Amino acid sequence: MYALPFGTKTRYAPYASGGIGAMYLRGHLTDQFGNEESFQQRSAFAWNYGVGAAGYYGHWGLRGDVRYYRATSDGENPDFSTPHEVARGLLSGLTYWRWNLGLAARW
After folding, report:
1. In total, how many domains does the chain have?
2. Alpha-carbon distance 93 to 75, whole Å?
3. Which H helix or E strand runs over 87?
4. Residue 86 CB: number of other CB atoms within 10 A?
5. Among positive and negative, which fits the CA dihedral 10, 14, 20, 26?
6. I want to staple 104 with a disulfide (CB 3.0 to 4.6 A). Which of 51, 60, 61, 86 is the partner?
7. Which residues contact residue 107 at a Cβ distance below 8 angstroms, ignoring those fewer than 6 apart?
């Protein structure tokens, strides 16, 4: 995360963020009758980037950001014939956006 504080007493701080890691999927699969077939766990290399800003008044402030997340694709088309293939197909190439707004404190 890189921030560039400015203003009186560095009251405002826009920032950019990014990272790499793993995206993890875990779940239960059921058949058409509601019977549990299998428990699946799967992970994939993932990355994210985003922008945000924080504004303070004294020790308290607000902070908000928006981030884009993406899991890498393995390049193969899953056939969805097994629970393992279903989990692989759901996670491969998964992307989503997430935004946050919250209270911030500093000392």
Report:
1. 1
2. 9
3. helix 83-91
4. 19
5. positive
6. 61
7. 59
d(CA 45, CA 68) in angstroms, rounded, equals 14
Which residues have a Cβ under 8 Å from the Cβ of 21 and sit 6 or more positions away?
A: 45, 46, 47
- In angstroms, rounded to a whole number, what is the distance separating the alpha carbons of residues 21 and 97? 16
3-state secondary structure of 107: coil
* Encoded tokens for 17: 């963020």
Buried b (16+ CB within 10 A) or exposed e, 89-100: bbbbebeeeeee
Neighbours of 74 (CB within 10 A): 14
Query: Contact at 8 Å (CB) between 79 and 85?
Result: yes
Mean pLDDT rounded to a whole number for the chain: 86
Q: If you count them, how many residues does the chain have?
A: 107
Print the domain residue range for 25.
Answer: 2-105
The overall pTM is greater than 0.90: no
Dmax (CA) for the chain in angstroms is 63
